[in-house]
Specification:
Length: 360
């Protein structure tokens, strides 16, 4: 069954069936049940954990006595809702691959705070403080690779000393894990490097001028925003053969691999106020109908697309459809679903400030 996780304009989080239009409310505006505040609160952001069968919502107070907390809605347990953490203002959520943990980013007295909460016990551990701060879960959820300023290190989730990989990281955002348990990052001299937990360092590719890159699920191909003939371009590098494929000779606002790594979708400018998806399968490039991007999505998600692509699903689980938060012709928020097929119609779901796929 197709399903979307939506954050609606009024601050409500819902799960939506695009086929029937039926929406199940996860958290609504107002003081959360059991919360300390009595004022109004709204859902700032949400995330879906397919392995855990739960949705996480970060409630933000819009009144002085409003509630600030993390809440979990368990779909697999009779649609129950519980408070995971109180008095916490989180603006980004990242479930672990196994569904046992939820990582969250919050403002703190010493900069941003990366915390990890265990879903079952509610135990919260702060892994790192600093700014800017980006991270990635290992495939087995046992560790988190953290990038803070020019440092890259791996932190065991359940305790233990961090393992420093380098203190000469470049100006990239989120690191990526490879299937062989190495961590990919950009060096200070713009080389793409893979750091093994055994201390090995492997150069994957040379110059990456923009610092923006994304690794596919197989670990074989990496998409890079680069320069070609002195102009902006989106390039796919085959790390096994060394081949370079220029997908587009234009500036991209974000690019996302499909779940199986077969297709790459990127956002490019269509005209003055619209963008469009281009989709490459290695043999050709398909351009999908343009749309006006939603303000929150464009301001809070796209600038950090490498981080969001590791926590929120722009692609459907079967790798055939893309969803984005948009603005309709009347200026109202909506979700726009594009199928990576030129014969398919564009679907529009009204009332969506943020939108992602929520697959089982």
């Amino acid at each position: 069954m197709r399903r979307l996780l939506l954050v609606e304009p009024d601050g409500r989080a819902t799960l939506c069936d695009p086929d029937s239009g039926v929406r199940a409310t996860l958290d609504a505006p107002g003081a959360a049940e059991g919360g300390a505040g009595g004022g109004r609160s709204v859902v700032r952001t949400a995330a879906w954990s397919a392995p855990g069968g739960w949705a996480a919502c970060a409630l933000d107070a819009v009144e002085l006595d409003g509630t600030r907390e993390l809440r979990l809605h368990h779909r697999a347990d009779r649609d129950t809702t519980e408070v995971l953490a109180s008095e916490l203002t989180a603006f980004y959520l990242c479930p672990s691959p196994c569904g046992r943990f939820l990582a969250h980013l919050s403002p703190g007295p010493l900069g941003l705070e990366l915390g990890v909460s265990e879903v079952g016990s509610g135990e919260l551990r702060v892994l790192e403080r600093g700014q800017p701060l980006f991270w990635a879960w290992s495939a087995d959820s046992s560790a988190v690779a953290v990038h803070v300023e020019d440092r890259l290190f791996v932190v065991p989730v359940e305790g233990g000393e961090p393992r420093v990989l380098t203190e000469e990281a470049g100006s990239f955002l989120a690191p990526w894990w490879t299937p062989d348990n190495s961590v990919v990052m950009l060096s200070a001299d713009n080389r793409l490097l893979a750091y093994g937990l055994d201390g090995s360092v492997t150069e994957l590719a040379g110059r990456c001028h923009s610092g923006r890159f994304a690794l596919d699920a197989t670990g074989r191909r990496v998409a890079v925003a680069d320069l070609v003939d002195d102009g902006p371009a989106l390039v796919v590098l085959d790390l096994l053969t060394g081949e370079r494929d220029v997908v587009a000779r234009e500036r991209t606002g974000g690019f996302f691999w499909s779940p199986e790594g077969r297709r790459l979708a990127a956002l490019v400018v269509a005209d003055e106020d619209r963008v469009q998806w281009i989709v490459s399968d290695g043999e050709g490039v398909l351009r999908l109908p343009p749309f006006r991007p939603g303000q929150t999505w464009a301001r809070e998600v796209l600038p950090f697309f490498e981080q969001y692509s590791q926590s929120h699903a722009v692609w459907s689980a079967d790798g055939t459809q893309l969803v984005a938060a948009a603005i309709d012709d009347e200026g109202a928020p909506e979700a726009v679903i594009h199928t990576a097929d030129p014969a398919a119609d564009t679907e529009r779901i009204s009332g969506a400030r943020l939108a992602w796929w929520a697959s089982e």
